[in-house]
Amino acid sequence: MPRLTLALVALSAALAGGLAATLLTRDAAPDEAAIRSIVETVLAERPAPATAEPAPLSAEAINPLIEDYLMSDPRILERMSTALDIELRTAQAAETLAALETYRTQIYEDADNIILGNPEGDVTLVEMFDYNCSFCRNALPDLAALLDEDPNLRVILKEFPILSQESVAAARVGVVVARADVDYWDFHETLFTGRGQVTGQTALAAAAELGLNPVSVELDMQAASVTEAIQRSYALAQALNITGTPTYIIGDELIPGAIGLEELRGRIANMRACGSTQCDG
């Protein structure tokens, strides 16, 4: 039997259905091009083979495998927790950085910002505080030291009364004092170094010591503009997810809590060195 015919027979045996019938019913032996054309036609017409559905895995089958894996490497949970913590911190830092940029005007240019130190300083430290915050009280010497030792530091204080209604009353007085032509820092120190709870009356007495008329201050503290100043602080705190005092803002970092003088110094130095509170290397 000619070799081409043997090839056709073998091909017809290998392929089922249409291709074999097509080849064996031809009158003359097809050439190579014809065979290729027929093969391509039949393969194109054949249905795709069905793929088997994987059998569902039951909890009874999976749970022992998971347990064996975890028992063989129990510290994997610790590594997972660490990795998750890093991921969350990274995401939170990115969100905070974006928020600080979005609310830059509200942070640094609010009309009722209390400016201390060098108004043209090359680094700005922002503190949101409550007059009845014990941590703010303990951190007062840190702020005083920075103002005393760093002639290029600008400090912005923002009233953020969250601890009591008396804190709100004292903050209202604070807004009025900050707008007046007196030394606000003396008022600030007086309230934070005094004994007991700071109240509206305590704040009025401190304002009087600076030469302000307490009756006029008490009238002015009820003004709508004073309410609006405090409301702007609340709105900013909500936008930045600030929930406690003191909270500092230095450059690209929002710092919750009193972190101490050396930590503040370090972040200020880093801002000057690399433009961020955390310098690489």
From TrEMBL:
Q: Which domain of life is it from?
A: Bacteria
Which GO MF terms does the UniProt record name?
Answer: oxidoreductase activity
Q: Which SUPFAM superfamilies match?
A: Thioredoxin-like
| Gene3D superfamilies in the cross-refs | Glutaredoxin
Q: Reply yes or no: does the keyword Signal apply.
A: yes
Record carries keyword Disulfide bond: yes
> Which segments constitute the Thioredoxin domain?
88-273
- Keywords of this protein's UniProt record, alphabetized? Disulfide bond, Oxidoreductase, Redox-active center, Signal
- Alphabetical list of CDD domains matching this protein: DsbA_Com1_like
Signal peptide range in chain numbering: 1-21
Query: Per UniProt, what is one Pfam family of this protein?
Result: DSBA
Report the InterPro entries cross-referenced here: DSBA-like_thioredoxin_dom, Thioredoxin-like_sf, Thioredoxin_domain
Q: Which PANTHER family match?
A: DISULFIDE BOND FORMATION PROTEIN D (PTHR13887:SF14), GLUTATHIONE S-TRANSFERASE KAPPA (PTHR13887)
**Protein name as annotated:** DsbA family protein
Tell me what organism the protein belongs to.
Arsenicitalea aurantiaca
